[in-house]
Amino acid sequence: MSVETIASGRYRVERVLGGGAMAKVVLARDAELGRAVAVKVLDESLATDESFRARFSREARLAASLSHPNLVTVFDAGEAEGRLYIVMEYVEGLTLEDRLRNDGPLPPEEVRRVALQVCAGLEHAHAHGLVHRDLKPGNLIERTDGTVKIADFGIARGDGATELTEAGTIVGTAAYLAPEQAQAGDITPRSDLYAFGVVLYELLTGRRPWQIESLSDLARRHTEPPPALPEHVPPGL
Asked: Any idea what the Cα angle at residue 59 is, between residues 147 and 218, rounded to 5°?
């Protein structure tokens, strides 16, 4: 696989969109269908790691089984020159992380609009036995027309899936982890709802309820309640 194309030239790479320890995401043009797509490619340093390859392949199968307006759609998946890739819908817009950084806290009615969409997407995924496990503002993309989509089921797993991380390893972003996740316990749809509660607090206040710099900081959540929401937040919300 060259740096310019993926899958025997079908997907022509235009630019890098982002990435992490496991993979990078690029904007590409689907030569056959003539549309922009986002392609997630397993990092070259992990290409020979069977556990990472298994997790990456599982992401493709799980995500491809979902179809909902508030979830990023998976179009294709495969392997080229020993590297796995997933082709997804390209969502033009900003993540909620971007919005918080640019605009600060969102008005309560705006948060409610976003929340209803994210809940609808989660409900669909949970009904199909999938838990996201890494819900955070950076994985929630708001399209230019206001539609919010949940992205990156990269560490999602089915209810009956075998855990592919080492025993005791915690996968996810520490600040949004549910207590059972932080203790490497059973992960359920409630784990996603806890994380989304943290996201909603952040959208309303511009800060997380707890400042978590490391996993050891998570213990404070058992004794320290989060600061109260601003007075302008409606009690119903």
From this structure: 80
The 3-state secondary structure of 31-98, one letter per residue: CCCCEEEEEEEECHHHCCCHHHHHHHHHHHHHHHCCCCCCECCEEEEEEECCEEEEEEECCCEEEHHH
Three-point CA angle 127, 119, 160, nearest 5°: 30
Over residues 12-50, the pLDDT tens digits come to 999 998 877 677 889 999 999 999 999 988 777 777 778
User: By three-state DSSP, how is residue 158 classified?
Assistant: strand
- Annotation says 134 is catalytic: yes
Catalytic residue among 30, 76, 134, 152: 134
At 1, is the pLDDT very low, low, confident or very high (cuts 50, 70, 90)?
very low
- Are the CB atoms for 196 and 135 separated by under 8 Å? yes
